[in-house]
Amino acid sequence: MVTVSEIAKNKIIELRQKDGLAEDYAIRVGVQGGGCSGLMYDLQFDATQQPTDHVVEDKGIRILVDRKSLLYLAGTELDFSDGLNGKGFQFRNPNASRTCGCGESFAV
Predict the structure, then answer these.
(1) Cα(55)–Cα(107) distance, rounded to whole angstroms?
(2) Do 34 and 104 meet the contact criterion of CB atoms below 8 Å apart?
(3) CA 64 to chain CA centroid, nearest Å
């Protein structure tokens, strides 16, 4: 299961409205090969649910995760920071054995 923090929820709603997207647009969270540590996070808005997607709703935000990515993302919290140490979405992934300095790639 993937969850969102309260701050991430508010930022998702803000970005969805800014982009002029309807409320039925979900957040698609995925994993792709690449990055400094071998795997990279992928985050985007998506209105199309695939038959193999795992769908969860947290704090009113619908989250789509493909079956393969779910293996790497189970238990992950999506957070958002706009502090001095970095701005943007952050993944708090208990499955990651190591992450790179930018926080966008990881290894298991």
Answers:
(1) 24
(2) no
(3) 9
pTM to 2 decimal places: 0.86
Domains of the chain: 3-107 (2.60.300.12)
Nearest to 32 by CA among 4, 90, 72: 72
CA-CA distance, 77 to 29, in Å (whole number)?
11
Edge-first strand order for the sheet with 86-92 is: 3-4, 77-83, 86-92
Residue 17 to residue 53: CA distance in whole angstroms = 24
Strands (E), 47-108: 54-58, 61-65, 77-83, 86-92, 98-99, 105-107
Q: What's the one-letter identity of residue 37?
A: S
- Residue-wise pLDDT tens digits, 12-38: 999 999 999 999 999 999 998 877 667
Determine contact, residues 65/73, Cβ cutoff 8 Å.
Answer: yes
Check residue 18 and report its DSSP letter.
H
Q: How far apart, in whole angstroms, are the C-alpha atoms of residue 17 and residue 91? A: 22
Total residues found in the chain within this entry: 108
